[in-house]
Each structure stands twice: as structure tokens, then as C-alpha cells.
Specification:
six-stranded mixed sheet, binds 3,5,7,3',4'-pentahydroxyflavone, alpha/beta, 15 helices, 2-enoyl-CoA Hydratase, Chain A, domain 1
């Protein structure tokens, strides 16, 4: 019998703490074992004065971390274990808070898929380094969840100069950002080409100084996000769903039609929950946002849309969720 490989590999190299999320076949989605191992490493290293920085990575070359183990959460919901659901989110969000409070650089190397829970273990740290292979998104409305892991605090604060339109767009549509776009949007802090990651990693481990990052990073020119800013302000700068839909209809462009198609496909209930969550999150600190999110998970995971959304997207993969109320209920909102 072979021994199971640990799903989180934590090692020390000199002054660096190295964390490798190691469930490559599940795109390193966070399960409770990984979450508890992260919490243990943080608790030990927080008190360790010789530790200069933490480096967080995903194994397997395809993903940083695709999210949380929501298939398991769905199973816990369907089999009547609300305590297990509660424990999962409570411990995940505690890790998010501990990363935000970590006293030294917390450096994530994002060289692949980074969604949901993956955003949660990176965005609250000091350095979020992306490559040309990074893909970042908060796709929860597709599975009838909502942007959690502290993003109700982060998304309304993205530097957009447009009244929250950028964060609302990302949260409602689950828009996918490539590495450079994530820097433009403010979710990532540095762009480093994949071919330079080994040298950057070595410099961080040997020098123990996070300032080395600047030496490997490339400036990100204005790109898609800069180009979208005006239309994001016009459409997602609106605060209600009817106003957002009406503004998108009024655009009459292919891009606007695509956004409308996405909004009509995701859970209508999730859209309403997400809008209200971001509205409240804009006025709360991170701790309060995480508490609000945890309280919401109790109700939202019991709503039939959650089990159905995870089924359609991640279990049966038919991409055909049957929402209740259905997406046509949205028609009542459209002027
Ligand atoms: C929304 C989500 C998640 C998602 C897709 C969504 C999520 C998540 C995964 C995921 C993807 C691949 C895996 C896996 C999980 O996808 O949270 O184990 O192999 O974990 O549209 O919230």
C-alpha cells in the first residue's frame, strides 16, 4: 500500500516558508484537510521570528487553486450534515482572515487557474504574482453561491473609479481575467512571465526579501480592463439588477449581449444575494464581511439552487441547471 500524499506540503527553506497546494487532479481545490493544514502552518509561522516570508503555490502546472471542495459541501447538504457545511466555511474563512493578518509577506505565485477559494488564499496577502498562464475569476453565481472568502470586502474596493462597477461585473458574471488583466483590475499585484518564476522563487528563498519581486516583474500596459472601464461604469455602475440589465440592453453591442446571456444563465437568486452582499460589504471591514458571508452560507447552501448548480457545473457537467425560481423570473425585472 502506498502512503497517501499530503494535500498540502509545508516546508521550511532558510527564512522562507513554502506551501504547496497538492491536489492537482482536483485543480488543487481546497478541502478541509488542506484548510486545516494551512491554518496550522500559519499559526506556527506567525510566531516564528526567523521566518521572513511565505510562498504559496499550486502543484501540477495547471492550477493555483480552482476553489473550494464544493462537491463535498453539496454532499453534506444533501445528506443532512449542516454542521459539516458550517465547519468547512468557518475554517476556510478563518484562514482567509489569518492570511490578512499575517505579519510578514504572503506571496502567492499564481501560474494557472485561480478561482473562488484560490482567490481567498491569495488576495488577502501582500503579493499576488500572476503569469501569462494565470486565469482569475469569482464564478460562484454559476453554482448559486456568492463571492465569498472575503471578496465581499475586496470587490467593492477595487480601484475602478466607477462606483463599484468592476467588482459588480466580476461578481455577477464570474468574468475570467488573464494574468495581466488581473493586475489591471487590482486583484493581482505583479506580472512575472512563467519562464522567470524559477529564478524569482530562488531569489525569494535565498534572499528572504520580498523586494526581489520588483526585479522580476514587468509593467502591465493598459489592456482590456482599461478599455472596458467606461462600459463597466455605465452598466455595472448601476446598483440594481433591473438597472444593470436595462443598461446592458441599451448598449446594443456584442459584449453587452454576452454579459446579458451570462446573467440569464446563472442563478437569479444568487444575483440578488450577490448585489446586496457587495452593497453591504462596501461599508464593512474584512472581519465583518467574513462573518456576513458565513451567516449567508447557512441559508444559501440550503436553497435548492446550490445543490442544483454544483450538480450542473461540477457533478453531471451538463451545464443545464434548473433554477427555482427559474431564469425567466428575471423577465419580470426587465423593463
Ligand atoms: C464556481 C465555483 C467553483 C467552480 C466552478 C464554478 C468552485 C470550485 C470548482 C472546481 C473546479 C475544478 C475542480 C474542482 C473544483 O469550480 O468553487 O474540484 O477539479 O471548487 O463555476 O465556485
Amino acid at each position: 500500500m502506498t502512503e497517501a500524499e499530503p494535500s498540502l506540503i509545508a516546508t521550511r527553506q532558510g527564512g522562507a516558508g513554502l506551501l504547496l497546494m497538492n491536489r492537482p487532479r482536483a485543480l488543487n481545490a481546497l478541502d478541509l484537510g488542506m484548510i486545516d493544514a494551512l491554518a496550522a502552518a500559519i499559526a506556527a509561522w506567525r510566531e516564528d521570528a526567523a521566518l521572513r516570508l511565505v510562498l504559496l503555490e499550486g502543484a501540477g502546472g495547471r492550477a493555483f487553486c480552482a476553489g473550494g471542495d464544493v462537491r463535498r459541501v453539496r454532499q453534506d447538504v444533501l445528506e443532512g450534515r449542516p454542521e459539516a457545511v458550517e465547519a468547512f466555511f468557518a475554517r476556510e474563512y478563518a484562514v482567509n482572515a489569518a492570511i490578512a493578518a499575517f505579519p510578514r509577506p504572503w506571496i502567492s505565485l499564481i501560474d494557472g487557474v485561480c478561482m473562488g477559494g484560490g482567490i481567498g488564499v491569495s488576495v488577502h496577502g501582500s503579493h499576488r504574482i500572476v503569469t501569462e498562464h494565470a486565469m482569475l475569476a469569482m464564478p460562484e453565481t454559476a453554482i448559486a453561491l456568492f463571492p465569498d472568502v472575503g471578496t465581499s470586502h475586496v470587490l467593492p474596493r477595487l480601484p475602478d473609479g466607477l462606483g463599484g462597477g468592476l467588482g459588480r461585473w466580476l461578481a455577477l458574471t464570474g468574468a475570467r481575467l488573464h494574468g495581466a488583466e488581473a493586475v489591471e483590475a487590482g486583484l493581482a499585484t505583479h506580472f512575472v512571465p512563467r519562464e522567470r518564476l524559477p529564478a524569482l522563487r530562488a531569489a525569494l528563498i535565498e534572499g528572504g526579501d520580498a523586494a526581489a519581486v520588483a526585479h522580476y516583474a514587468e509593467p502591465v500596459p493598459e489592456g482590456r480592463i482599461a478599455a472596458l472601464r467606461p462600459v463597466l461604469a455605465r452598466c455595472f455602475g448601476q446598483e440594481s439588477l433591473p438597472a444593470i440589465l436595462a443598461a446592458l440592453e441599451a448598449e446594443g453591442t456584442e459584449w453587452a449581449a454576452e454579459q446579458l446571456a451570462i446573467l440569464r444563465r446563472v442563478s437569479p437568486t444568487s444575483l440578488a444575494v450577490t448585489l446586496e452582499l457587495l452593497r453591504r460589504g462596501a461599508a464593512l471591514n474584512l472581519t465583518a464581511c467574513l462573518e456576513m458571508e458565513l451567516a449567508l452560507t447557512r441559508r444559501v447552501t440550503q436553497h435548492p439552487d446550490f445543490a442544483e448548480g454544483v450538480r450542473a457545473v461540477l457533478v453531471d457537467k451538463d451545464q443545464t441547471p434548473r433554477w427555482s425560481p427559474p431564469a425567466d423570473a428575471m423577465a419580470f425585472f426587465t423593463p
